[in-house]
């Protein structure tokens, strides 16, 4: 079994739900969508560590195949929320990831409540997906998941993510609409990556939604906007205000929508301090400001003297100045 697992579609144990198609028993044997390793019935293909390989006729093991690449719309938010919650509940947070989150200024309880989890190793992926499927979760169109092709034909569900930890991205109602991964090894395109499978069978694109955080205790009626979900999680804790983390300064459109859903009348923009160096960030800030003011929303700009992001500024106790922007 072990040797086979590495070279083709994974095998799973037969069960009461799925008995061995060769001997009919409910234990010991293994199957995937095209093959069985029966431990009781011989064939011409013995397997080195026990049992015999049998080719299954197509359709013996039920499989659903989704239209390939690019044609799948994302599953509705209710489905994504249900699947992501169940998925995260199966995962753990590695000590080094927890340490990183503590270092950034979150408490143990917040780390637990916010639901950060480590990306599991490739060997565990198909098994996790199988478990979700067996528990009745539909993975079709849920960004991050997709159907892989087995070496001998057939498909199985799995997911794609680089090593790191998952950050849940919530909508204005607290539903998990997407996941972001904080990469262990940032590459040329940054430290964060959406959990997304736009060009994969059965997969879908996450888009670039914004993250809405509500604090335990609301101390400020204004809604704050910053760059990145994790930054928003941290800053919200320190200020006791609703925070929106946009997926990059330029992706402010979803934030305007969320601000309207929240019914906010006043917004504070707290983009990174490097906006003073980056034209694109400055331009994005101006566009966000103009769009909010057009909707009759008062806009304030936050500034501070040290640290790049508002989260680090708050954690290190910098003074934050908030000024209303009247001109356009
Ligand atoms: Zn069998």
From TrEMBL:
Q: Which InterPro entries match?
A: DUF3854 (IPR024385), TOPRIM_DnaG/twinkle (IPR034154)
Where in this chain does the record put each DUF3854 domain? 223-316
Highest taxon in the source lineage: Bacteria
Its protein name is DUF3854 domain-containing protein
Organism (species): Moorella mulderi DSM 14980
Q: Which lineage?
A: Bacteria, Bacillati, Bacillota, Clostridia, Neomoorellales
């Amino acid at each position: 079994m072990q040797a086979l697992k590495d070279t083709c579609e994974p095998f799973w144990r037969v069960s009461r739900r799925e008995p061995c198609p060769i001997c009919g028993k409910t234990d010991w044997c293994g199957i995937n969508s095209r093959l069985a390793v029966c431990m009781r019935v011989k064939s011409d293909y013995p397997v080195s560590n026990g049992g015999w390989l049998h080719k299954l006729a197509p359709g013996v093991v039920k499989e659903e195949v989704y239209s390939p690449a690019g044609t799948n719309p994302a599953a509705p938010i209710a489905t994504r929320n249900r699947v992501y919650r169940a998925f995260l509940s199966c995962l753990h947070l590695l000590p080094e990831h927890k340490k990183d989150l503590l270092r950034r200024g979150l408490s143990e309880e917040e780390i637990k409540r916010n639901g950060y989890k480590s990306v599991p190793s490739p060997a565990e992926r198909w098994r996790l997906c199988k478990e979700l499927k067996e528990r009745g979760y539909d993975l079709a169109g849920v960004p991050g998941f997709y159907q892989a092709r087995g070496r001998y034909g057939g498909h199985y569900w799995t997911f794609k993510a680089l090593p790191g930890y998952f950050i849940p991205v919530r909508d204005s109602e607290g539903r998990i609409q997407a996941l972001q991964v904080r990469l262990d090894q940032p590459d040329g395109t940054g430290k964060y990556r959406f959990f997304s499978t736009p060009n994969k069978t059965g997969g879908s694109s996450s888009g670039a939604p914004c993250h809405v955080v509500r604090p335990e205790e609301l101390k400020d009626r204004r809604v704050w906007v910053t760059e990145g979900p994790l930054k928003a999680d941290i800053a919200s804790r320190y200020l006791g205000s609703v925070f929106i983390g946009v997926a990059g300064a330029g992706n402010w459109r979803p934030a305007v929508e969320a601000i309207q859903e929240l019914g906010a009348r006043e917004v504070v923009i707290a983009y990174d301090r490097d906006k003073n160096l980056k034209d694109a960030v400055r331009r994005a800030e101006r566009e966000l400001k103009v769009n909010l003011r057009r909707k009759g929303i008062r806009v304030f700009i936050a500034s501070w003297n040290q640290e790049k992001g508002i989260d680090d500024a708050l954690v290190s106790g910098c003074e934050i100045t908030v000024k209303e922007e009247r001109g356009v």
